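Example record

The entry below shows one chain as it appears in the dataset: sequence first, then structure tokens.
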Amino acid sequence: MTSMTTNTKPPEQLTLLPADAVPVRFRLDEATRRRGLAHIAEIRAQLNRSRAERAAQAAAGRGRSRVRDLPVRPSADAQTKPHAA
């Protein structure tokens, strides 16, 4: 029997490097940074709206379900018996 060891490191938070630590060719100007941050804010707002909509649908009992209503299939007896005309 083999035992597994799990490595449970705490998650790491990414941080931005100080501007002087980044090579000049990789630095962004202030306008580009503002546009990027605005875009990220828009994406977060969109995700929050969709989460809220899903939560509201689930609370109302209308959540997306993988169960589908299928048409009623005739019983096996009805398929083997000759039809009366």
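Notes for this example: The mean pLDDT is 79. Helices lie at 30-59, 76-80.
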